[in-house]
Design a protein that fits this description.
Blueprint lengths: L1 H21 L13 H13 L5 E11 L5 E16 L6 E8 L2 E8 L5 E11 L20 E3 L3
Length: 151
Amino acid sequence: MGSSGTVKLLKRMSDEETKDTQAEAPVETTPEAPTEEAVQAVEAKQEELRPGMTVRVHERIEDVTPKGEKRVRVQIFEGLILGIRGSGPSKTMTIRKVSGGIGVEKIYPLASPVIAKVEIVKTAKVRRAKLSFITSKRSGWRRKLKEVWKK
């Protein structure tokens, strides 16, 4: 098996190399730098959002069907903004909702192309930047937030 195995191995390698040179090289998709319009849209979105707001986040989800086709659907996540952190394009918001008695928290980057839109459902009066006391199990700290009505 000594020399003949080596020859077969070399032949396979050379065949693979010719296939690679004949076929087009796969194009790597790198995240593009955000355009000026996208940055302005994100900044406008960031100015509106504050902790204590109840929002609906429309999230684009890409699925693959059993046939192998890609399809995009929109899933809505509605919850309370617990906090916003970061600055510029790396700004993120933490949203919490209670689903079936279980608390679910998601962190969304505001500049993400996954977010189709953010709807503000209602706002509440809060005096904190981070509402971590909402998640606590101690009933004394878990207060109901007062809703603010806009005219």
